[in-house]
Structures are given as C-alpha cells and as structure tokens.
Amino acid sequence: MDSSNTTVTSSSGYELLLTAVSLIPMSHYLLGVLFFSLVFLYNFLEFHFLQDLVRGFRGSPVSLTFNSYSEIYEGVASKCRILQGRYLATPWLSSPHFQTVFLNFFGNPPAFSYRRQLFHASDGGTIALDWLTSSDVSEGTSNTNTISKDDKTPLVVVVPGLTSDSDSAYIKHLAFNTAKRGWNVVVSNHRGLGGISVTSDCFYNAGWTEDIREVINHLHVEFPEAPLFAVGTSIGANILVKYLGEDGENVPVAGAAAISSPWDLLIGDRFICRRLLQKFYDRALTVGLQGYAQLHQPRYMRLADWEGIRKSRSIRDFDNYATRLVGKFETVDTYYRRCSSAGYVGSVSVPLLCISALDDPVCTREAIPWDECRANKNIVLATTQHGGHLAFFEGLTASSLWWVKAVNEFLGVLHSSSFVHIQKKTETSGHHSSFESAIDQGPYVNMAGDGRVAAIGSGEIVEDLSELHNKTKDRDEMASDVEKVELLTEAKPSSSSDVRPTETSSLTKCINQLSRYNRRSIWLLAYIAIMTTWPLVGSALLLVFRKKLRNYLPAGLRKK
Question: Which candidate in 97, 190, 386, 389 is catalytic?
C-alpha cells in the first residue's frame, strides 16, 4: 500500500514538473539558448569589448621591454608618444580574429599606384621592387620618375609577410603613411609574388635572407646619401631580424622594425595546430601557399613533390612536400629550427623596434624571446594586450593601423637622433648555407601538460650569449687546427725538418689547445676513479696491513 502511494506521488511530481516546463513560453527558451551561445562565442572568439567598456574605452598601456642600459630606449623610444601611450582597438573589432579577418578581406587600404623596378639577383632570380616616393602622394607636387643618386631623403625598405605582396592592405597602409610624411618607400616583394615569375630554381622561405641582403646592398650603392631603414612584417619580420643578426655591424641599415614576427617557427608550428580557430588560419595560409605553388607549377613539379603539395592540408604539409625539398632541408623541424630568428636576436647591432600583440592568433606570445630582447641594448620590444595579427585597427571607422603610426614615429625620432646605426665593415663568417646539415641542432620544444610549448636547448645551458659564441669559436679553431695537423702528417710523415714554421706553429698550437681542453677532464676522471674505488682499495689495504697495525695499537684495543 505504501509503495503504491510512493509510486503515485513520484509520478505525479514528474507530471507537475513537465506541466510547469510546458507553461514557460518558447521564446524564453530561445532567449536562454541565445544568451549561452553569445557567452560561448564571446569567449571562443576572444572578445574584449566588456573589458574595454569597464576601462572606459581608454585602452591598455603599451608594455615596453628593453635593457636597463639601453640608449635606444632613453634616446628614442622614451620620446615616442605613441609607444608611451595606450592602444584601444576599434570597438566593433574587439576580437583578434575579427581584426585579422577584417584586415585580410577589407583593410580600408589607401588608393595609390606604385612604380615597379625589376631587380635581378646574383643567382638569376627576379625580385619586384615597388616604389612609392613622397612626391607620389604629395598634392601639388610634380611627380618625378627617378630619385637622384645624391638624394638624402630617408628610404624605407619593406619586407612583406607570407604570400603577401605590395598590394596587401597592411603594406599599403605602411607605404602610404610613410611616403605621406616625406620619406621614400620601396617594397621588396618575395620571389614569385607581385605578378613576377620565378626565374631560377631558388624560392623564398621563412629564413631566406639572401634577397633582402642583395636588395639593401644594391639600394645602399645606388643611394649612398639616403639613410636606409627596414620594416619587416610577419614572416618578413623573421627574415629581417635573421638578416640583421647574421650580418651584425656590417649592415647599411640605420634602423629597423619587426611587426608580428613568429620568432620561433617550431613553437609556432605547434601553436597553429592546437585549437580549432588556429587550425582555420593554418588551413587558410595553406591555401595561399598552394595558390603560390600553382603559379609556378612547372618548377615545383621538377624540384618538389607536386602531388604532396596538391594534397597538403596544413602549412607543415606544404613545407614537407615543397619548402624542405627545394631548400635541401633534412626534415621540416630542421627547417623550422634553422630559419627561426629568435637565435639571432642577440647579434642584432641595429636599433630595432619589435611590436607584437599578445592575442595574436597566428604568431603566439609563447615564441617571443623576452630575455634575448631584454639583453640586447639595441632592441625595444613593444607588446599590446590586443591587436590581432598585423591589424591593430584603431578609431571608430578602423581607417588606420596603430603599429604603422608607432613605426613611423620611432623611425622619425631615431633619424633625428645620434643613435642611427652606421655600417662598420667587418669580416663575418657568413650566414648559414641552406645546404648545410643541421639536423641535430636546437632549439627543441618542450610540451607542457596544459598544451603550452617552450624552447629548450639540446646541450648545456649557457646564459651569456657571448660566452656561447666564444666557446663555439674556440671549438671551431681547434677542429680546423686538427685538420691541418692531419694533412701535414699525411703529406710528410718521414721528415720533420721539411715542416715550415707556420705548420710547426699550427702543430704546437693544436697540441697546447688539446692539452688545455683535456687537462680538466683528466683530473676529473682521476678524482672519480679514486672516490669510486676507495672502499675496495681501503678494505684490501686493511687486510694486508692488519698485523702491522696491531703492533702500534694500545693493548686495550688489540684485544678487541
């Protein structure tokens, strides 16, 4: 009886609940679904409108990272009003994804026309140089087709991003605003872009610095009186920083800026495959690379795996089937490690402004070399909380890019200061050849439990970059001397009197270096041998000399 009453009560309770649910209007359910959908999308697309609203639409301050003894910061960056101020994104673009997509599909670029010059590289490749001079955008000024050789107007060389050229919206924003302030601009398009065919078997990649090196040297010879500045964007920023680090003091560049650089390609590769939205960018960039390959299909069919290129679904796939094969890299990771610019930051000798957004959906903040930038007195790193990838739209109409104004102000203050870089001719060991094997070189990456990645070294940690450079130099010198000794002993094994003084000095130097490097190791091995064998040796000595020791012990101890 009681059980039947319980059943009736529970069933009637469910009926009452269903009746109450049915009484709620359907519109309320739709509003609830809409609300939770908006909350999900707000977080999924990383909107920050409410944060901006709480701050009163004042934006967030620009964070500057620099060396405490940096003259570049004290004499240049500290005088830049924009870098010392705040950045507020366009309210209706308060998402890094909205900013990035809007830049690529709309961008609000200014309308103007370039003048093209074809530059022929030493290997037979063709590079399109698109010029925009100050007279081209100045109203009421007669346009001239050439720049005189003794012109002292500052010249800015621009290196575009991956699959981008001079017609990209952000490049047009930079070129127009720079020319508007009275400077001349030349966009160095990558090989095969800008409507130019590839005329050699060499293609550009994320670490290919030969083109920008030849272009800058050519411009320096053509216009020796004009101060040269360089601006790199995205992959172009990686190429520019790597070039500046490779050549050190021996660059004719007075100052530079790197915008939204990927820094470490290996970390970037892991990042862009991590989340759903990043995979969308990965796929979009892959389609752009496939379109680039389609323009130059005959050469790619001969030099790479065309079927693999056609079926690529990610940047890594494309690099595996195309970039790795054309550039003669052993693996994709080898290509990423060797072409990353993070390892060259410490060698940059030119005043360099680096700008990155911490919410960049393409180039992760995890790859930014914070410590290396802080250690180099020539570098000022500016980071903003928002901005997306190369976007940084500001104003209600999103008609301008914040980073363009920041770069122009920085280069302008630098040009009028005494801190501009002056080229110093020095002998350099040269940049790494793309055909050199480096499959065992770092940095590698460490995957944390939360999915974050960080670079780790493959050998011992050396905190001082100069110390690492000196150690490498000493090892190289010692290896070269050993090779010389081997050649001498093979050539003249029987007669020591025939050895010339220079060869004898090389032999002596080699022996001294070998003994110096091995002396510490020998003493360390001897110490380890003594400490590890002492228990056994001590026991043996005790057994051998036990009777003799008893004769010297007191009578009381002998009995024991």
Answer: 389
Q: Is 117 left (phi over 0), alpha (psi -120 to 50) or beta?
A: beta
Q: In the annotation, is 360 catalytic?
A: yes
3-state secondary structure of 553: coil
Out of 134, 166, 168, 234, the active site residue is 234
Beta strands at 379-384 and 352-357: parallel, antiparallel or unpaired: parallel
433 counts as catalytic: no
Asked if 386 and 96 touch (Cβ cutoff 8 Å), the reply is yes
Rounded CA gap, 106 and 108, in Å? Answer: 6
3-class state of residue 400 by DSSP: strand
* Catalytic residue check, 234: yes
List 360, 386, 421, 434, catalytic entry: 360
Cα distance from N-terminal residue to C-terminal residue, the chain: 92
pTM to 2 decimal places: 0.75
Phi, psi of 326 (to 5 degrees): -65, -40
My answer on whether omega of the bond before 361 falls inside 30° of 0, hence cis, is no
Q: What distance in Å separates the CA atoms of residue 23 and residue 10, rounded to the nearest whole number?
A: 20
Contact between 216 and 316 under an 8 Å Cβ cutoff? The reply is: no
- pLDDT per residue of the chain (560 residues) written in tens, 0 to 9: 455 555 555 568 788 888 888 888 888 889 999 999 999 999 999 999 999 999 999 999 999 999 999 999 999 999 999 999 999 999 999 999 999 999 999 999 999 999 999 999 999 999 999 999 999 998 655 555 678 999 999 999 999 999 999 999 999 999 999 999 999 999 999 999 999 999 999 999 999 999 999 999 999 999 999 999 999 999 999 999 999 999 999 999 999 999 999 999 999 999 999 999 999 999 999 999 999 999 999 999 999 999 999 999 999 999 999 999 999 999 999 999 999 999 999 999 999 999 999 999 999 999 999 999 999 999 999 999 999 999 999 999 999 999 999 999 999 999 999 999 998 764 444 444 333 333 334 443 444 444 444 444 433 333 343 443 454 445 445 444 444 434 333 333 433 334 344 444 444 554 455 455 455 555 555 555 565 555 555 565 666 556 555 665 555 545 44
